[in-house]
Amino acid sequence: MGGGTNLVVADEGYRGTVFRYTGREIVGEGTTIRAESGADLEQVVLFTIARGLAGLESMMRIPGWLGGAVYGNAGAYGQSLHEVISRVEIFDGESRRWISNAECGFRYRNSAFKQNKHWIVLAAELSLREGDAAVLSARAEEIRATRDAKFPPTMKCAGSIFKNCFFAQLPESAQRRIPPGLVREGKVPSAFFLEQVGAKGIVNGGIRVADYHANLIYNAGGGTTREVLEVIDDLKDRVTTEFGFTPEEEVQFIGVAGRASH
Hints:
By secondary structure, the protein is an alpha+beta fold. The protein has a five-stranded antiparallel β-sheet, covered by helices on one side. It has helices at about 40-50, 65-70, 110-115, 135-150, 170-175, 190-195, 225-245; strands at about 5-10, 25-30, 30-35, 55, 75, 80, 85-90, 95-100, 120-125, 130, 155-160, 165, 185-190, 205, 205-210, 215-220, 250-255. The termini are close together. Strand 5 (about 75) and strand 6 (about 80) form a beta hairpin. It folds into two domains: about 5-140, Uridine Diphospho-n-acetylenolpyruvylglucosamine Reductase, domain 3 (2-Layer Sandwich); about 150-255, UDP-N-acetylenolpyruvoylglucosamine reductase, C-terminal domain (Uridine Diphospho-n-acetylenolpyruvylglucosamine Reductase, domain 1, Alpha-Beta Complex). The longest helix has 19 residues, at about 225-245. The chain is built from seven helices and 17 strands.
């Protein structure tokens, strides 16, 4: 595992050994950046901005390490990591090698790493483009303020619980109910559907859904994974009943039977 920011772990814990690759070196040459997977993603973003390199500035304040961001093809506000990755260094259980962007099988919040969980991400090489450091910094600070308002640094949460939904893959009945202008880059925010089924403000023990964002589930104190799963399943059932499709979790699970594991 990396920083663990997108994981939900069973209340019983995980019976096994957990490895964390902590190499965090970041180096740059021209418009190419090479960073080890243990590097904090925000530090990678700041490193590129300081050198006037564009392509990561909208990922400011996404918590976690670079390796986890590669694994989940992290992104925000119109930028995704796969757009700037040229190759990734992995250990595949037998050898240490570099694989190309195409071999990474990147898709929306997905990658070949999720299908090959024995692969360990060691480093990534990023190809960026020249930009104005002042402009990039201003954009990053704007993103920082937005994300800090939505996800306060002290909040105990795993970020957005559900992936956004591809408009073309939704039932026609659901498509007809989506307001004009809500579809961006072919996707509809899952928060729209969750809000329509009354997700905001739900309380289950110590677990709550934010009253200002329907796709934000957090631990208000004393919450358990069991309570998180109950809220997730309740919301999935509500959306399925109301709109005819089931939203997919973005978070990964450890030690939870029947759930996508890291």
